[in-house]
Structure formats: structure tokens, C-alpha cells
Amino acid sequence: MTEQxxxxxxxxxxxxxxxxxxxxxxxxxxxxxxYVRTVVELHGGVGDARLDDLASTLxxxxxxxxxxxxxxxxxxxAQQLAETNGAPLSIITDRDELLYGDPAAKAANHMPQxxxxxxxxxxxxxxxx
Length: 129
Prior knowledge:
Radius of gyration: 18 Å
Order of helices and strands: EHHHHEE
Shape: elongated
Number of helices: 4
Largest sheet: 3 strands, mixed
Strand order of the largest sheet: 1-2-3
Strand content: 5-15%
Structural class: alpha+beta
Oligomer: single chain
């Protein structure tokens, strides 16, 4: 699968699509731009579209720009877009590069803070048994 909802996703933040490195590297810059533009455009106009119609539209529009996904990815992406229609959308890479949307969607902004974890001698470091 080429996209996933990162850990810490909440409905208030909307949908964050994370593209994995092998997928991003398999695309030319033009293809990646086409993927992002297509997803953004379709996210804004999902309305009452049926999932199978939305998946077909995704497939047709992406393949028109020479972007091909595994069959299940069209269905999953359509489901994500339909479930969050109208909510904010962000697209990032698994290397935490923002491709579209709110910079607050980057994974680095959602990593839990654990005091003292970098220094084994830190007094706040959690104790493990």
C-alpha cells in the first residue's frame, strides 16, 4: 500500500496521507506532482460519490498522468477521501517531507515526548525491568 494514516491521526486534524519512499522514488517529479494534484482535486469534490465510482475516477485520473497504484490502493484511497470529505488534507512522505497541506501534519509534530530517553543516566529516564 502506498498510503497510510500516521500514528496519532485524529479526525480534527483531517486526513494525512503518508507516501512511502519506494513509491515516491518510483515516480518522476511530474508524476508525483500529478498524484498530489489529483488527490487534492478529488478530495475537494467527493460529495456523495460512491466508493467504487471514486476508486474508478482515481484510477483513470492517476493513470492519465502515468501513475499506477496497486488495485487495493485505489480502493483504500477512495475510502479515505470519502470518510474525510471536507476535512483538511495533508500529504507527506515517510521521510517527513510535506508535499501538500498543513505543516503541522508532519510526523515530527506528533512524536510523543519522553524526557530523559536520550541520556541513559538522566534521572527522568523511564525504568525498564
